[in-house]
Each structure stands twice: as C-alpha cells, then as structure tokens.
Amino acid sequence: MTSESPTPTDAADSAAGPPPECPAHALGPGGVHRLYGPGAADLRSLYETLREQHGPVAPVLLHDDVPMWVVLGHAENLQLVRSPTQFSRDSRIWTPLRDGAVKPDHPLMPHIAWQPICSHAEGDEHKRLRGAVNGAMTTIDFRSLRRHINRYSQMLVNRFCEEGEADLVGEFADHLPMAVMCELLGMAREYDDRIVHAARDMLKGTETAIASNQYIVDALGRLAAERRARPGEDLASYLITHPAGLTDEEVREHLRVVLIAAYEATANLLANALRMVLTDRRFRAKLNGGQLTVPEAVEQSLWDEPPFSTVFAYFAKQDTELGGQRIRRGDGLLFAPAPGNVDPRVRPDLTEGMQGNRSHLSFGGGPHECPGQDIGRAIADVGVDALLLRLPDVELACPAEELRWTESISSRHLVELPVVFEPREQQDVFQKPSLHALPRQRSVWEISTGDGRPSVPGSAAQPRPPVPVEPALPPEPVARGGAWQRLMRWWRGD
Ligand code: HEM
Predict the structure, then answer these.
(1) Which segments carry the region annotation Disordered (predicted)?
(2) Is the distance from the beta carbon of residue 90 to the nearest atom of ligand 1 less than 6 Å?
C-alpha cells in the first residue's frame, strides 16, 4: 500500500506558497514541511511531527524548496541503504538536478555535486574505490593507534590542566580527531591549531570557508605528491599503491573525504560522549553505583546523538515503494540516523539505555557502511578515558540546560563544554610504556562525581594564553610494518 500524501515531485509542481523568507511559514509549496528556515530551528521535534503526519517516510523541502524524502523509520533506513538495486548514491540521476531546479549555488552543493569517491560510486566502481580504502584501513595496527590517541590526549590535556578550567569542545574534542587523522594519513607535521581552525571554519561555511578549504586541499596535495614519489607506511601511501590504481584526483578526493568526514563525525562523537559522561542521569546513576564503562557511554551517545544526523543522499533508480510511500524514479531520499535511532518501534522508551545493542544507524549500513567506525570508536573511547584518568574530578561548569549546539541538516555540533577541575601539573607524554600506560579497550571506568553543580559558569569560555606544549609527535607511521619495527615502536612507546 502506498500513501496519497504529496510526493517530493508533486510538491515542486504545486502552485507557489508563501515566500520562503517569511518566518511565519514553516510550510512550502503543497503544504510540505521545509527542512530549513525558521520552521526547522528544532529538527528533532520537526522529525517527530513528520513521523506523526506521514509515518516512516515523509516528503520535505530542502533550501530553494527542492523536494526530498526524509526516511524516519529505523527499518526503512536500513532497507534504503541495503537495497543497492533500488537506491543509488549517485546524485546525477536526481530529477531536480537533471531538470535544473537545483542551482549551482545551492547551499547543499558540496554534498550534492558528484565526485570520484567511493561515497558516490556504485557497483564495480564502488568495489574498486572501496577496495582501496578498505585495503588501506586493514594496514592499521590498532594497538599503535591507541597509543597515539593516548599521547595526543595527554598533550592536549597538558595545554589546560594547570588552569583548573577548560572548554572540552574547543580545547579537546575539536583537536584530538584531527591530530589522530593527520597521524594516520601520514601528515603528522601538518597538525596544529591552524589546520583545526581551517577544518572548523570550512564546516561552518563562513566567508573564509573557501580559503580554509584551500589550506586543507594544499596540505593533502603536498602529502599525495610526497607519497607518490616516496611511499611510506601510512594510509595515504597504501591508497596510492593499492592495486586498484587510483588516479591522482581519486587519491586527493579520498584523502579529503577521509580527513574531513572522519574529523567532523569523530569530533562530534567525542564531544557528545564527554557531555553524556558529565551530565546524563543514566550514567550518573551508574557512576554513583561505582561503575561506568566509557565504551558504553560512547555507544549510547551513538544512539542518542548520531554524529551525522542525516546523510545526503540516496536516489531511486526506479519507481518503487518505501515505508508506504510511492517513490518515483529520480527522487532523492535522506538517509537519517537521527530520527531513525529514536524510532518508537525500536525504542518505545528513550530513557532506557541501549547497553549491548549496537544496531543504531550512526555508521550507515549496506555497501556504503562506514569503513572507519573502529577508528572513530577508538578515538572516542581512548580520548574520554585518558581525559577522565588525568582529571578525575572534572565537572561541568554550567547547568546542562545552558549548553548550546549549532545545527544543520547534516549534523549537530556542541558549541562549548565548559568544565572545572582541580589544577594539576603537566605530565610527560613521552613516558615509556608500562603495564598500565594505556586504558584498555572496553575497560571499566570508575569515577566519583558527587552531585557537583557548576561553580564557575562560563569561565572556561575565556580566551587562554598559549601554553607551551611538547613538540608534535614525530610523523611515524601507525600502519603495520614488520614484526621488528612493531616491537621497536612498542618499546619506544610510539
Ligand atoms: C564517529 C565517527 C564516524 C561516523 C559516525 C561515521 C559515519 C559514517 C556514515 C553515516 C557514513 C555513510 C554510510 C552510508 O552512506 O550508508 C560513512 C561513510 C564513510 N566513512 Fe565514516 N564515520 C566516522 C568515522 C570515520 C573515519 C574515522 C573514517 C576514516 C578513517 C571514515 C571514513 C568513511 C568513508 C571513506 C565513508 C564512505 C564509504 C562508502 O561510501 O563506501 N569514517 N561514515
């Protein structure tokens, strides 16, 4: 059975409604909800309204009132990503793009424009590109990776531990994934405050976004040229030398996808997991009982706050049906972990923890399922663990209700996470490895928080004078080498 609610194509064909700039109107032509503008300030509640009105798949409008479906149901999202014969990620078949309704200056163009990357490819081409990405990922030695994550965490904590206050978004969560990704890619030397600023600026889409994008593209271009000439043991080299034979353009574009998408998603995950550990009653209750595993907090955060709220997009290769809606060939559909993860059919009670259940949609599914999820999880697990070990008395410096987010269709980013703690000395980040040097994967975390409420609201937002830090870690590869090299790296504590 298919519903008679207006399809995205019908909505575009309808007579013009109120002007899009009018704040009083959340509805566009055909009475279809806009996913942008004043009516979409709270996307979570908008998704629930849409679920009530249309069921698991709803028609919506993107900027310029471009028609789209948003998939709200958990099962329907899985069906979307697992049906490559019906739905493709190649935007070139999208009707509004083909008929010119999507203009070149559309704000979502960076997501829409087709690129020679695995995310947009399908069939044999997807297998070839994804094969190179998977091949490069399998060279990663996770033991060594976790050491690097721990080292960079220590280095970042050293920058603020003597102050007794910090903003864990701006001073920790926004930095750690970039440091680790630069290390993994083989460009540890490029990691500094400037590249973090460039990535954030680019994602915010400010006036300087183009220059920031260029800064990152230049860094990746240098890396690709260096590794083409002299391959090493890093992700960039393995991508370049993979038998799939990626062209220079394909290498550059994949480095960019890996750096930026991985960075943004992991920074969001880390900030959300830290917020959850510091504020969530479910975890506080467990903490008061004495135990909370950090990986559980990370996994719960993946359910409640998917780092990508939606992924743009899948496109129907033929007329079909999804969630009771008639989908026409060329229609676009947003894969949407945010509403999918809170589908009442899989989570009737959102206050119930999801411990032990990893079937959330945050890493996608089907042929395009995220190949970097273990890296994202490792950064969040080790980063949160390392921070809590260094600052066991850390607590939020403002009421949880005062925390703010910036939100777009694709993601939700915590603006600040101000915390206070007892000032502590810096720690040597080059300590030799010892039995307990590293938090173990899936370790149990014990912390005593008391019922402490913030005592210094907003204090962490003050600009901090630069604190001298250790020199950046030498750009040694974390990819797997020979047994001897691995032993030496372990011995040196790399
Ligand atoms: C918390 C961290 C991360 C999250 C939440 C995340 C999420 C996602 C999602 C939702 C997709 C799209 C799946 C789909 O279209 O069905 C994706 C694809 C992808 N991710 Fe991640 N990701 C994360 C970290 C990473 C990392 C660390 C890397 C690389 C080191 C990475 C590399 C990729 C690539 C290359 C794709 C495209 C795969 C394809 O189209 O075949 N991601 N990710």
Answers:
(1) 1-30, 447-480
(2) no
User: Distance between CA atoms of 267 and 176, rounded to whole angstroms?
Assistant: 8
* CB of 139 sitting under 6 A from ligand 1: no
Q: Looking at residue 351, what is its pLDDT? A: 87
Can you tell me whether residue 368 is helix, strand or coil?
helix
Burial of 23 (C-beta count, 10 Å sphere; 0-12/13-18/19+): exposed
Could you read off the pLDDT of 169-186 as tens digits, one per residue? Answer: 999 999 999 999 999 999
pTM of the model: 0.84
Q: What is the CATH number of domain 1-112+309-361?
A: 3.30.43.20
Same fold, 1-112+309-361 and 130-307+364-492: no
Predicted confidence (pLDDT) at residue 492 exceeds the cutoff of 50: no
Measuring from atom 32 of ligand 1, which residue has the nearest CA?
372
Average pLDDT over residues 179-202: 93
Ligand 1 binding pocket includes 119 (Cβ within 6 Å) = yes
CB-ligand 1 contact for 177 (6 Å cutoff): no
